[in-house]
Write a structure and sequence with these properties.
2 domains; single chain; 5-stranded parallel β-sheet; 16 helices; 428 residues; Rossmann fold; alpha/beta
Length: 428
């Protein structure tokens, strides 16, 4: 019998409990992998995270460089400093452990890829976000393509005056493309962008692993309790149509665009009676507070739509919220995959999403609609919302198809594909 795969997994937002603390998709995937691999005899998993909360029985090393604070509480510059401190401690620890392979969640928060490569330690990063593409879309307004930005930064790399914040974005992702045997992404659209940005990568170096829907569901008792709490807390009439969106509150998630679309619907006199929008999530650690104030201002300007901000939802309460919604809307400006989209499908809730690589990967026409970008987006988004809410028979059919699609794409399939990829590095 062959020896187990000695795997180290790092996650800068791990160890906090994603159902209780809004720490992003990378931490959620890390937790699911821990649950899936933790009991396997052929995987010897060591988790390296800054947080104190890890699954029982799992070997872990806490890398607490924040003295008890959470990464999600940091501003932009302090987060960059955290990334560098985390990188240094991770790199030293991984060299000492010398595992068969390292699985890394995210790029800016990763260990030193080049140092691990020199030590012969294969490192596979999961790009929950293509940070170069994100930077170009969100900070450069989409006017500069990632491949052009990377080519420009390549010429500047030798210059010591380059801000470290930019190096965290550009240099670390370039190092991953240069030194890592594989880069894992959750959507084919992401892979295409990466392959254009780093044309020197080998064929097959970028591996697409869509995450699918969670395997585990809350117990019936937990759902019943959450249903009672949800009903008392929000007091939404049974006949009221409900739109729900769920993610961190951040400009790239586009909650402002959704509110503007509803404002357009009011101007057209097309709001159905009792329409309620539930905006779930807490503010992001960067640009969050100012964006939240913008969302509240847009919500106050609506007179015919009730808008509720219930905060971060997890576990059974999140599932109940998704089941109560008639329509889940993702108005994201940038979305790599969309874990909450798959959770909405698992709850039987039809989805309307703006076109992103993640939406194209997660949705099919029978369970949701993808709205192409262009034109007056707020008006076009409202038109889709209006038409979908008005067609009750179509919504019911889409809800059934949504459950079927989620059931056909369980997270366990993604976890096994990833395990086989990592085991192949050990065997080679």
């Amino acid at each position: 019998m062959s020896s187990p795969l000695r795997l180290a997994m790092t996650a800068a937002h791990g160890g906090y409990g994603s159902e209780q603390v809004p720490v992003g998709g990378g931490a959620a995937i890390c937790e699911r992998l821990c649950r899936t691999w933790g009991a396997r005899q052929d995987v010897e998993l060591t988790l390296l995270v800054p947080g104190p909360s890890v699954p029982p029985g799992l070997r872990s090393l806490r890398v607490d460089v924040l003295e008890g604070r959470t990464p999600s509480s940091l501003g932009t510059l302090s987060y960059a400093r955290f990334c560098r401190r985390f990188e240094k401690v991770l790199t030293r620890t991984l060299i000492r452990l010398a595992p068969d392979a390292v699985l890394v969640h995210d790029i800016a928060e990763a260990p030193d890829f080049q140092a691990l490569h020199r030590q012969g330690i294969p490192c596979v990063p999961i790009l929950h976000v293509d940070v170069v593409d994100f930077f170009c879309r969100m900070y450069l307004g989409g006017w500069v393509r990632p491949q052009a930005a990377e080519a420009f930064m390549r010429r500047l790399r030798p210059w010591p005056i380059l801000p470290d914040l930019l190096r965290l974005v550009f240099d670390k992702q370039a190092a991953a493309a240069l030194c890592c045997p594989h880069l894992v992404v959750p959507s084919r659209g992401m892979a295409e962008i990466l392959e254009k940005t780093y044309p020197e990568m080998a064929p097959g170096q970028v591996v697409v692993v869509p995450w699918g829907a969670p395997d585990e569901e809350p117990s019936e008792a937990a759902l019943q309790a959450a249903r009672s709490r949800w009903s008392r807390r929000l007091e939404i009439p049974a006949e009221a149509p409900v739109i729900l969106t769920l993610s961190r509150l951040s400009p790239e998630k586009g909650q402002d665009l959704l509110l503007e679309a509803l404002a357009w619907g009011e101007q057209q006199g097309e709001i159905p009676p009792g329409l309620t929008l539930v905006v779930c999530g807490q503010v992001a650690f960067m640009q969050g507070p100012a964006f939240l104030e913008r969302l509240h201002r847009l919500a106050r300007n609506l007179s015919q739509v009730r808008v509720i901000f219930p905060g971060h939802l997890g576990g059974a309460e999140k599932r109940i919220a998704l089941e109560r919604a008639d329509l889940f809307v993702s108005a994201s400006r940038h979305e790599s995959y969309g874990l909450t989209t798959m959770e909405a499908l698992a709850a039987g809730t039809p989805v309307l999403a703006l076109e992103t690589p993640g939406a194209r990967q997660a949705l099919s026409p029978d369970c949701g609609r993808i709205l192409a970008r262009g034109g007056d987006l707020r008006a076009r988004l409202w038109d889709e919302i209006r038409d979908m809410l008005a067609d009750h028979g179509r919504l019911e059919a889409m809800g059934r198809a949504a459950r079927e699609r989620a059931a056909a794409h369980p997270f366990s399939l993604a976890a096994e594909r990833l395990r086989l990829l990592l085991a192949g590095l050990k065997d080679s």
